[in-house]
Queue: 3 jobs
Job 1
Amino acid sequence: MSQFIPSLKPCDVGGCEKARKIHEVAFFLAMYSISLGTGGHKPCLQSFGADQFDDDHAEERKKKLSFFNWWNIALCCGLFLGVTVIVYIEDNVSWGVAILILTITMAVTVATFYLGKPYYRYRLPEGSGLTPMLQVLVAAIRKRKLPSPSNPALLYEVPSYKIQGRLLGHTDRLTFLDKAAVLEEEEITNEMKHNPWRLATVTKVEEMKLVLSIIPIWLTSLPFGLCVVQTATFFVKQGATLNRKIGHNFEIPPASIYSLSAVGMIISVVIYDKILVPFLRRATGNERGISILKRIGSGMIFSVVTMSVAALVERKRQKIAEEDIDVLDGEKNVELPMSVFWLAPQFLILGLGDGFTLVGLQEFFYDQVPDSMRSLGMAFFLSVLGAGNFLSSFLITAVDHITEKDGKGWIGKDLNSSRLDKFYWLLAAINSVNIFAYVFFARRYTYKNVQRRVAATNLNKDDGMELMP
């Protein structure tokens, strides 16, 4: 509306007037609407898609393992079109036309999604996922002085036929919470409904353990989020100073360089899903090929390589800037005689890492949180990127403040007079140290222990039970 209604548009062909209140209201209303809509569908849509596969059927479970890979390929295709076609239309046609195309596309998407409503699988509501965790904590504190049974089978659990969800097997981590499932003498003799604030099932205790156990993995994922943020900020800003011409007439918009990370991620995910997983599945006998945490850790190595390559390329760019006459004369926005494709390796390498770490984190937070909290699990993943943005801002401010004391800060308004390469080396060092911390916690992590009903198509029994870690 702000692009097509004259009264809402502060700029025209003749120039831009000072923005009035109505312009600010229209702009921020649009921004907050996007934020509200994104916050509503992003954590839920992906988990809803994964819920369409039945974990109790081996064939569907195998397809579900590829779901997150192909979901991210679709996202990368959308990202590629967004930073190439849409950006080109914005620069060469008009912002109004570009936004209109996006609006129509989103409307068609919502309509298509709604048409599938009768065919979707829906999980039955199970109430708040936070209340049972609080109940476990209260019950464990109340029974902290009781001795734990030597056999975990003596802990309280309800029969599987009495509940709708899946039961979780006992694990030997965070055993102080097991006190919540210890049966007192009066609870053994009383067959009436137990007070959930005094007695919790093993499943509820294990769900609490799951949430507490993923926190170290979440924390050690944040440095990778720091690297991902750079692709949309400093990497693009670097590209704006370089020669972006292809031939004599076409110039790549700076934002379009970001599409290279999407290309890298698509390559990574396709190779992983179609080549690595089948090979590793045969070699290891693991249904996933390798464990989720190994996949995440493999991608973290790419972040160190990316920042190291970015530092070397940036140092080369700075040396060219130091020798350029226009830069020496103090001119701003100088296009350096260096191709923008020097930045391609750092975009592609981080894209390859995204295919391991980001997709792995999505799968991990979906799979390892309690079943009733899977949307919250996807919010955990999104918070890695969100917290990465905040940490990046904090780190830039801190580095700039500290390095300015020596007279020349690492990060200034003019990249040519900054030392962005040192900042990249700092990020490489942070991620290198973080990998050791991640490995420490990952080696001690215990996966969810699910008692899963398995549909058997070639057996006389309708279903069986298997214990799946």
Job 2
Amino acid sequence: AGYHILQSKIALGSGGIFGKGFMEGTQSQLNFLPEKHTDFIFTMLGEELGLVGGLVLLTLYFMVLMFSINVAVQCRNQFGRLLAVGISTTFFFYVFINTAMVMGLLPVVGVPLPLVSYGGTAMLSLMFAFGLLMSVHIHRNLEISRGPAAFW
């Protein structure tokens, strides 16, 4: 295994159930863990807040995912439904790939953890996607007519 994954597993394991405390993680504070503010932020949270903190974060992600799927289910037009499902799927894969990567289940790739990791472009695109999702939610009862009457 590579250095990144090895240090990530050490940090996650040393966090235990309740963690070492905020800013008390040895792997992250002594700079053994590379890219702790971007790709490996979940590892740092797992070391400092433990299994409980990691599960709380994953529960919050699950709630956001359920909200976005609920928006897709309630939407009456197909475009809004497909847009909401696409945003939900993208959000799920960002979270899944990052958490699986820091646990050593997937290879290390540059996928940030949504809403937590440092990174301007990923955060900007995610906020744009959530704005579209909120627009779909607001206009969920709007039916888009088809044919020539839709343009007049």
Job 3
Amino acid sequence: MSFLSIRSRIIQTTCSHLSLEEGSNDPELEAPLLVSAPDQRTYKMEVEWKNKIGKLLWLTWSFGLVGIDNGILGPSLLDLRSLLHVDMYQMNPIFICQGIGFIIGCIIAGLLSEKINLDMFLGVSLLLGSANNVFIPLTHSIYLMSTFFFMQGLTKGLVDVICLVICLRLFPNKRNWQMQFVTVAASLTSFLVPFIVVQFQSRPLGRIPNTPNPPAFEAIPSHSNSSSTPNEIQIMSPSHIEYAFFITAAIMVPPIIAFFYFFIRDGCQASVNGYETDEMNQPIVDQNKYPWEKKWKMIVLLFLFHIPIFGILLAYSNLLTSYGIASSLNFTKAELGQFFMDLSQSICLLFFLSFFLSSFLSSFLSFFLSFFLSFFLSFFLPSFLSFFLSFFLPVNNHLPH
């Protein structure tokens, strides 16, 4: 039995009682019978607007998966490395695989956005992305983990494009502050997720003499050799980084349920109304209003500015979390962790905080500026901060092993 036939039977079963109990097509939109026709139209417009705002909030929650995938890798990179028992140089394919997956996900979502139910597409993408994050810390092979990070980038690209396409179809206006509002969720979750990760990171327990056969429970490698001596070994507590991935996956359960519900509900309404497809599957943006010249500019802006520049900034923040910066006070990860977090973690949080402030600012300015200008401003603070960190802060030369 094909998927479409299964969906048709679900729609028929769900809607059978609706057609028997209600004479109207959509009871939620039906105004009282004693109300005039203009008032009925006003009532329906108000209900439709409330439904759009409700879906906008669910889109914002869903877009948080993009921020989770952006912010979780840096703080958890050292703990993932210790699970694999490899050095940092062997972790490099993770960044490449995640970036390639993101680009492929964006392309796939763009090609299928006109040919598939977007609510179902988004629900499946969120489900796959959350399930994939659960399995990442459970793997003990660098090749398998690279595959999972490729899938993470793929689902991140799918969710990124699908959420924006749905938002554009719900609110096809020139300014479209709603689209900017949706993107704020990614910057917010990327800023907050390190606070979750730090609770389950491996922490220093102290130092022991470097004997030929140290005790088994103490033979846990240090994240950094910057403060170790040849005669001492810094031992670390066991890592529970998998709990951070489980929590971030559980955060996405409500929007997964919501968009599968929208898929069945909207399909039910389309079946009762006699339409072949629902409103979300119809391109409401007039092609004549957006000629190829503007599309070409948007594609160039996406692939020559958004993906490479933001990808470089994101990879830089993740690596900076692990390598840290050199300080004249010679702070170690353990010493700064006792105060607030380690220095590299604070820098990572500072980067994503600037990303959040930029997104919030561009959302506010979208009321007054064009989409392209507000889109450009969303990268100003992260780019400036990365430039400052790159040229004015010396990088720590003691690489973690």
